[in-house]
Amino acid sequence: MACQFSFRNVLSFAGKFRRAQKGATAVEFALIATPFFFLLFAMLEVAMVFFVSISMEHATMEVARTIRTGEAQQSGQSSGGFLDAVCAEMSPLVPCNGNVYIDVRTFADFGDVNVNNPINNQELDNGNFTYNAGNAGDIVIVRVFYVWKLNTPLIGTVFANLSGERRLIATTSAFRNEPFGAI
Predict the structure, then answer these.
(1) Using N-to-C axis directions, what is the helix angle for 79-89 and 24-68, rounded to 10°?
(2) What backbone torsions phi and psi does residue 147 show, to the nearest 5 degrees?
(3) Where is the TadE-like domain (predicted)?
(4) What band does 1 get if pLDDT is binned at 50, 70 and 90?
């Protein structure tokens, strides 16, 4: 016997739900609705965090290329210009207004790379962030951070790594600058 699903069946169910006088249907719905909506919003919240992460990965990769090829150095791009370029590459669904931070460091060799953890006492410590795009042949580490406010109850307490139910999302790109200007 096949299970048939039709619009008529849905309307019939909705009509029966409305006419139910005993209240059992409403109680059952209330028992199921709360965890259902919690799980639904929790999944949407986690999906948004991953969406922001993917958007940042793309933006970091695209804008870091301007450093790798020497375009940023030759144009005299500042940290503000780099930040604006990152925000321009991110999805319009991800607001950049004061939530994005950059840290661009230069090293002589890959063995010299040492970056600090930007979280200190559940707060973002951006006091040591710098912008140094380096010269041709330098090793460059580009880190982009985004502070995301978690909105789903209970998810914030589990998923947050900053105080105030916020999550720090980070992307990193490491590369050696091309020998620009050597031709």
Answers:
(1) 130
(2) -95, 115
(3) 23-65
(4) very low
